[in-house]
Amino acid sequence: MKKLFPIILLSLITSCSQSQDSYEQQAQLSKNLQETNEHNHGNEDHPLGNIEITAEDFEWLVYELSGDKYLGRGIGQEGGFSSSKQILDWFEYFHLTESWLEEFEVLLGTKNVESELGYGSKSFEKGIDFSPIDYTANGDVEGKAWFLGYGIAENESDWNDWIDAEGNKINLEGGIAVMILGLPDVEEDHPLNLRENRRLGMLRVKTQVAKEHGASAVLFIYLGSDNPGGLINVGGTIRWGASPIPIGLITSETYSEIFSDADVSLKSKKAPAEKTLSFSTKVELDYVTAFNVIGYLDSGKDKTFVIGGHKDHMGKNSSGEVYWGADDNASGTSGVLELANYYSHIPPEERPGNFYFMLFDAEESGLLGSRYFTNNNPEIMEEIDFMLNLDMVGRYSDNEKILMGGINSSELFESDEFWSELTGLNENLNFEKSTFGDGRSDHAPFIDKGVPAMFIFTGIHDDYHTPADTPDKVDYEGLEEIGKFSISLIDLIASSMDLSVSSEEDIAPEIIAEEEEEAMPESGWRSWFGSIPDYADSGDSGYLIGGISKASPAEKAGLQAKDRIIKINSTEIKSLEDFMYALEKYKPGETIKVTYIRENEQYEVDLKLESRESR
Questions:
Q1: pTM of the model
Q2: Would you call the peptide bond into 569 cis, given omega within 30 degrees of 0 as the criterion?
Q3: SS3 of residue 179 by DSSP
Q4: Which of 47, 53, 49, 48 is nearest to 22 (CA)?
Q5: Residue 343, phi then psi, degrees to nearest 5
């Protein structure tokens, strides 16, 4: 484990005069090197031939990366792949010690679902009478159809569709559940309107409830005002995990044929339909190859830094709209490239350390690129002393402020002396400590592995994750200042650090769900477990932990990255979805028994849940 902390205040003070003009000194050294043609190229050969940090370079790079050539740099799209190759070419042009592409697979979602639905001798037409849901499990089931109203089974909600006329629990014993999506329209003061009961309307939760009551599959009916009784796109993705049993949607007409009712009832029927219902699903998954681009610059030093950011964005959608991603994150990608070009021209003895320049793919899919790198390069991870993440750094003029995250990852970053020194070196910039985004960008996997990291960010704006995030809105003078600021920051850290990790670091990473996905539960009881999913895992053999939040219940219980949870108390866990559902049942302060697999051995541990609000 590594930890940064101030050696002594004197070293901070004495470094001030040296660091203050370090950029100017090194820029002159670089200019001298270029004049001697050490790298065998001059300004006329390439837009990045000028090795100084300039607004013009940033403008050229951002327009290049967020233009027609790469069409939003989406993973699995030509623009994403070709931008990776171009960045590798730039790294090689900079004459780094070595550079390479790191290849990994990403599950995009569901490519296709073959499905059939029949009732007695009647066959229904896919896309007209019914449709499978994209994240359905595979299956081929037959059973009696039961209509269960809204499929709610919680006494606390004062609504229970899973009891019969005598008050006994209904067990479908392999039957197929049919239920209405969402929650019923009830009085304002009804318990179903309480925050902790909102989750009962979620499709995934309803599916889990049906499974617990013996259902072999679930078919849903939509009664929303925009398309009552019709087929809709319910959202969601199989990347969160497949449902535990086959699931689909049926129209109100299909419901009427099965139950011989003209209209959909709002209450459970308490008895099955007369004939046997059959439902089959076969899912074809959509995998793509993604590429991290890595460059290494050896300076022969005992300190090693990472300067990184994500190069991917959302690409072109199914309607042909391009999400250009100028600020997010052509701006940060340009910063990494500018700094790689800059440091590669500095004589090794003048550099503050060795450098890895990393541009990650699939960040928008859940930090998959940075998570893959940190999990699969243990020897390099041992070398790294600090990671600087540049993500959305192109809108300084919007807020006239740089937000700096990761401050809890090191005692050095918590010291007043450090911030006073940094302010003195950058009096023309306004920056402040922030915890926003601490778990939402590519520095988080490094912190999870014990590497101190900082996150530079200029703020969210209305164009975030829209096609309106275009290069004409980027502040290029501000980017130049942030590039120079990054140099002063690394110089200060290099001159002020001894290497080891803050035991008090308490960053709780979280992933922003894509806007088109069904949101994961905001959670009834707000219980905190403290693990980060491995979103690259698509198996059904348990919930694979990608990382552990510091000082969390999971860390206190001894859980680690790569542990695979297979049971919580008596609930079997086959996926992230199962895990999320299981946690919903327990309040902060309750102790649960977690069964998990580590290196092919099974273990059990007691874990005491905590409150999300109190972390």
A1: 0.73
A2: no
A3: strand
A4: 53
A5: -70, -30
pLDDT at 502: 40
**Residues paired with 390 in a beta bridge:** 456
Local structure of residue 360 (DSSP, 8 states): E
Q: Which residue has the higher pLDDT, 27 or 424?
A: 424
- The answer to whether 492 touches 422, Cβ cutoff 8 Å, is yes
Phi, psi of 143 (to 5 degrees): 175, 170
Q: Alpha-carbon distance 256 to 263, whole Å?
A: 7
Residue (of 223, 237, 227, 156) closest to 185 by Cα position: 223
Q: How long a stretch of residues is the chain?
A: 615
**Distances from the Cα of 571 to the Cαs of 289, 408, 568, in angstroms?**
34, 35, 5
Tokens of 240: 């969160």
Strands 176-180 and 139-147: parallel
Q: 159-160 and 176-180: which strand pairing?
A: unpaired
Question: In the structure, what pLDDT confidence band is assigned to residue 373 with cuts at 50, 70 and 90?
Answer: very high
Beta bridge partners of 285: 110
Per-residue tokens: 570: 């008596």
Handedness of CA 225, 464, 370, 80 (dihedral sign): positive
Q: Say how far apart CA 361 and CA 368 lie, in whole Å.
A: 7
pLDDT exceeds 60 at position 212:
yes
- Residue 138's alpha-carbon distances to 9, 112, 114, 135, 303, in angstroms, are 62, 12, 10, 9, 51
| Residue pLDDT, tens place only, 286-318 | 999 999 999 999 999 999 999 999 999 999 998
Q: CA 413, 453, 313: angle at the middle one, nearest 5?
A: 135
Which residues, at least 6 apart from 190, have a Cβ–Cβ distance to it below 8 Å?
Answer: 158
Q: Please answer whether residues 170 and 213 qualify as being in contact, where contact means their C-beta atoms are separated by less than 8 angstroms.
A: yes
Q: What is the maximal distance between C-alpha atoms in the chain?
A: 92
**H runs (alpha helix) in 159-297:** 203-212, 252-259
Which residue has better confidence, 528 or 78? 78
* DSSP string computed for 151-171: --EEGGGTEESSB-TTSPBP-
Check if the beta carbon of residue 67 is closer than 8 Å to that of residue 347.
no
CA distance 233 to 240: 17
**172 contact partners, CB below 8 Å, separation of at least 6:** 143, 144, 146, 210, 213, 214, 215, 216
Q: At a CB cut-off of 8 Å and minimum separation 6, what does 297 contact?
A: 96, 97, 340, 343, 344, 351, 354, 355, 356, 357
Which position has the token pair 């290196």? 599
Residue 8 pLDDT exceeds 50: no
**Rounded CA gap, 542 and 534, in Å?**
11
DSSP string, 278-299: EEEEEEEEEEEEEEEEEEEE--
Please state, in angstroms and rounded to a whole number, the distance separating the CA atoms of residues 5 and 412: 4
**What's the pLDDT at 396?**
93
CB 243 within 8 A of CB 237: no
